[in-house]
Amino acid sequence: DPLLMLGKPKQLTISTGLDALSHALESLWNVNANPVSLVYAVSAAREILQVLPDLANALDDVPLRTRMAKAALFAGLAFSNTKTAIAHSLSYPITLLHKVQHGIACSFSLPLVLRSVADADGLCREGLSAIFGEDLRAGSRKLEAMLGKLGISTDPDSYGVGPDEWKGLVENALSGERGRNFIGSKEALIGASM
Questions:
Q1: Comparing C-alpha atoms, which of 186, 191, 185 is closest to residue 120?
Q2: Among candidates 22, 5, 176, which has minimal Cα distance to 101?
Q3: ∠ CA 92-94-97 to the nearest 5 degrees?
Q4: Distance CA 72, CA 44 (A)
Q5: What confidence category does residue 180 fall into, taking pLDDT thresholds of 50, 70 and 90?
Q6: Of 84, 111, 100, whose CA–CA distance to 173 is shortest?
């Protein structure tokens, strides 16, 4: 019910919206991706990318809240088919150790994960191209710019995570249950971080 979301603060709106975006994107770069999850993920991600920046500046706009609620629902349907992947796996220790809000912790790495799968094929490529266009590296830059407009840094150091810790977090995240859902490689992910 989007009316229940009216009056929620800007930071909570951004964080939960970005968590939903992460749900959608992570269902695409996922070993469990399927045609059903792809349809929901693409619809959700496109809508969130369009609506969230406007909603962040118009918190009591019922039509925007309604669109965001529907997009979050579709993102939930996408990842209920696949589970989450590497960005969520990375987020858990960042939230626990550095007290970063969950939605921020699982979304600030999305542009670098997108860069790391820029050469993917199959359902991942189909879905990401439908969202960001054929040039996924350019799409990564657009996503990074959108996060910046929302006040979200994509630099792990901004959250107290230095380069050595980050590399360790990436390696550990890949070995966890959610990390094993990720279609990408450790080398590409670490390379995209540099």
A1: 185
A2: 22
A3: 105
A4: 7
A5: confident
A6: 84
Higher per-residue confidence, 185 vs 124: 124
> What is the chain's length?
194
**Nearest one of 86, 69, 109 to 27, comparing CA atoms:** 86
Asked if residue 193 lies in contact with residue 169, where contact means CB atoms within 8 angstroms, the answer is: no
Q: Which residues contact 1 (CB under 8 A, 6 or more apart)?
A: 69
Provide CB contacts within 8 A for 160, sequence distance 6+: 98
Q: Under a CB-based contact definition with an 8 Å cutoff, are residues 44 and 34 in contact?
A: no
Which of 6, 18, 7 is closest to 151 using CA atoms? 18
Beta strands in 26-113, from DSSP E residues, in sequence order? none
Which range has the worst mean pLDDT, 19-23, 86-90, 139-143, 176-180? 176-180
Q: Which CA distances in Å does 101 have to 59, 150, 164?
A: 19, 14, 22
